[in-house]
Amino acid sequence: LNEKLVCGYPLSIFFIVVNEFCERFSYYGMRAVLVLYFKYFLRWDDDLATSIYHTFVALCYLTPILGAIVADSWLGKFKTIIYLSIVYAVGQVAMAVSAIHDITDSDRDGTPDSMTFHIVLSMVGLFLIALGTGGIKPCVAAFGGDQFGEHQDRQRRTFFSVFYLCINGGSLLSTIITPVLRAQECGIYSKQKCYSLAFGVPAALMVVALVVFIIGSGMYYKAEPQGNIMLDVCKCIGFAIKNRYRHRSKQYPKRQHWMDWAEEKYDKLLIAQIKMVLKVLFLYIPLPMFWTLFDQKGSRWTLQATTMDGNFGALVIQPDQMQTVNPILILTLVPIMDSLIYPLIKKCGLNFTSNFYFSFILSNFQKTLPTFPSTSQSQLKLLNMGSNSVTVKLPGNDALILPAAQVYPFINNCNTKFTNLLPEVILFKSATNDLTSKPQEGNNAIRFVNGMKTAVNVSTAAADFGLIEPFYYSNYSQIKNGKATFTLRSGSQSCEYSTNFGFGSSYTFFIHSTLVFGSNCQDSVTAVEDIKPNSVHMALQIPQYFFITAGEVMFSVTGLEFSYSQAPSNMKAVLQAGWLFTVAIGNFIVLIVAELAKIPKQWAEYVLFASLLVAVCVIFSIMAYFYTYIDPTEIEAQFKKKINEDDEDDKSKPGKAEVEMVKRDSIKCHDEYDKATQTKM
Ligand SMILES: N[C@@H](CC(=O)O)C(=O)NCC(=O)O
Fold it and tell me: Is 412's C-beta closer than 6 angstroms to any atom of ligand 1?
């Protein structure tokens, strides 16, 4: 093993953790803007964008199996990491290129002319990224673990904690930086949101990750691959099942473990190793449910944040930036848990076998949405532009008194005919144009109605509503939260109207017929609130983040180390891949329940997920209680010793009686394995 030690740690792990930091920066940075790229660049709808996003995440956690097989049976971890990192970097570059709108924008209007080119290139890029990030993931963690000797258990545990901190350091920085890069405007012929830069920086970081890993090359301990182990494992399991089936009759004595039915054909060491792996994989069965909830922070929780108020005083948080709460909490909680809580638990003599995790359910945040008209109804607004109140009688409705300069919104059937309205009352009917959902990304959707007899031009620093004809309305424009000043212009005359916006509201501003230019037009514009601003603060998501992150610290950091320490020497990466596979299944559950089942009420979906998780936690606690820790190195050493002794005996005393003895000894050794694994943790 590596001789260069710094403070008791192999120097080589420095390169591994830096590599992980850069790789996770690359992955999470790209992922942070991916849904928005789908929606605003590729122009996909919400459902398609969310489905492809979760499919991509699931794929990233399915490919570890491929990487692990290649590493453990063929190339070894070191070469697998190098080759797949190149694939990964190429994928990131493809994503960055796919986001350059100028490539296909031959008419230079700012929108790509051949969307197919961008879609195909980005899908190829995402596939290569999934192959790369997933393929190297189990290898990097296991390769890091390989750098420690048998006597360095404590250091190896600390390594896995530091490794996790690096993951979250990379994720935190990139989740802050890439949304900022995306918000920049760039382009050759026309300036557009800079997705190419938001993908380009992660691509550069992936190249850095690769270079750092190669620099450390001379210092690593590189365990040799041990043949096509996965094929042997599959064949051995297949044989055991077949053999058991062939001997199903009662006349054959039972064996201690169903894998023992492979003894006729397979090495006892291999059978013992498969038993170790199966034992751990069995324990993994309930785990996907944790990831089902956890990975919704990138989709459901972020969408929920768009319906919330992100004003934190000096800081205004964007909905997608709320995800940074998770890595921030990880960076705080992991050191606290490692240096304080775990030692305290150990001192108290508590057996901390399973980690319980609570989910926090926040109720429906759509309460700020008004009642929208159904497809057979239309939304009408009555606006009294006069200076006196008027009485309005609409068919099928009671007479209503409409005060001066006031708007009365109501919903009615489309085919209702309106007659005898006073000339100063505007009947504003805009069923097809009204916004029927919260504006995106916490913005406010604003439009103007011109009640004047002349056309008016309306603009702000952030948006231009254009020239609005008399008694006509503008399109919606998106305005950020905070104060906005609108300039109303008619010919050479102008005036200003200012107002404050929160998050996620929609307003229709009515310009009075009595407006006089040249002065402040504050009193000549009436604001009608179509959708209330978000009233629930984003800070209310923090407890949710706290609980899920506390669960992650106890469950995921320890799980990574557990998967390494319980794996036989030739299947370390395979078991890491098994652990990551649970994440893939978790994402498929989100896809099925959240995207396909389409539970109408969001709170009902949260309750369903939380209840499932509670049930799974109980099952997992029971399973964890009965799990017995093993020391794979010791078991393997015992088997190897026995095999060597048998070989020696075979050489010196060949004969039937001896063969029988060897067989008996092997079985004895096998019993020792079974006894060794009976000790509870
Ligand atoms: N806490 C997450 C990172 C994030 O979601 O920002 C984490 O540590 N995930 C593990 C990983 O390997 O990426």
Answer: no
* pLDDT tens digits along 440-486: 767 899 999 888 888 999 999 888 999 998 878 888 898 988 899 99
Task: Tell me, yes or no, whether 557 and 614 share the same domain.
Answer: yes
Cα–Cα distance for residue pair 284/581, rounded to 1 Å: 9
- CA of residue 169 to ligand 1 center, whole Å: 9
For the domain that residue 220 is a member of, what is the CATH number? 1.20.1250.20
User: DSSP class of residue 654?
Assistant: -
Q: Are 272 and 331 in contact (CB under 8 A)?
A: no
Does residue 256 lie within any of the structural domains?
A: no
Residues 648, 518, single domain; the answer is no
pLDDT digits (tens, 9 = 90+) for 74-109: 899 999 999 999 999 999 999 999 999 999 988 888
Q: 79 near 573, Cβ under 8 Å?
A: no
Contact 165 CB / ligand 1 (< 6 Å): no
Whether 28 lines ligand 1, by a CB cut-off of 6 Å, is yes
- CB of 368 within 6 A of ligand 1: the answer is no
Q: Report the amino acid identity of residue 95.
A: M
Alpha-carbon span 203 to 87, nearest angstrom: 11
φ, ψ of residue 466 in degrees (nearest 5): 80, -170
Token couple for 309:
């108020």
Residues in the chain: 681
534 three-state secondary structure: coil
Contact 503, 533 (CB under 8 A): yes
**Residue 232, domain member (yes or no):** no
Q: What Cα–Cα distance (Å) separates residue 163 from each residue in 72, 169, 459?
A: 21, 10, 51
Rg over CA atoms, the chain? 32
What are the backbone dihedrals phi and psi of residue 592, each rounded to the nearest 5 degrees, phi first? -70, -55
Q: Per-residue pLDDT for 122 more than 90? A: yes
Phi, psi of 406 (to 5 degrees): -125, 155
Q: Ligand 1 centroid to 549 CA: how many Å? A: 10
Q: CA–CA distance from 582 to each of 59, 440, 518, 566 (Å)?
A: 12, 32, 66, 17
Tokens of 1: 């093993």
Examine residue 49 and state whether it is found in any structural domain, yes or no.
yes
Question: Where does the pLDDT of residue 434 fall: very low under 50, low under 70, confident under 90, or very high at 90 and above?
Answer: low
CA angle 177/506/47 to nearest 5° reads 60
- Write out the H or E segment, with its range, that includes residue 379: strand 377-384
Which residue carries 């740690």 as its tokens? 9
- Token digits of residue 111: 């929108």
Beta bridge partners of 230: none
Q: Looking at the CA of residue 298, tell me the nearest atom of ligand 1.
A: 5
CA dihedral sign, ordered 204, 205, 206, 211: positive
CA atoms within 13 A on the CB side of 106: 3
Contacts of 447 (CB under 8 A, 6+ apart): 465, 473, 474, 475, 476, 477, 507, 508, 509
Task: Give 558 or 541, the one with higher predicted confidence.
Answer: 541
ipTM of predicted complex: 0.97
Please list, in sequence order, all residues whose beta carbon lies within 8 angstroms of the beta carbon of residue 24, skipping any fewer than 6 positions away: 166, 167, 168, 169, 170, 171, 174
Enclosing domain of residue 656: 633-676
Q: Which two tokens stand for residue 181?
A: 């890069």
Residue 342 and residue 465 in one domain: no
Place of tokens 């990379």: 170
Q: Number of folded domains in the chain?
A: 3
Say if residue 322 is in the same domain as residue 359: yes
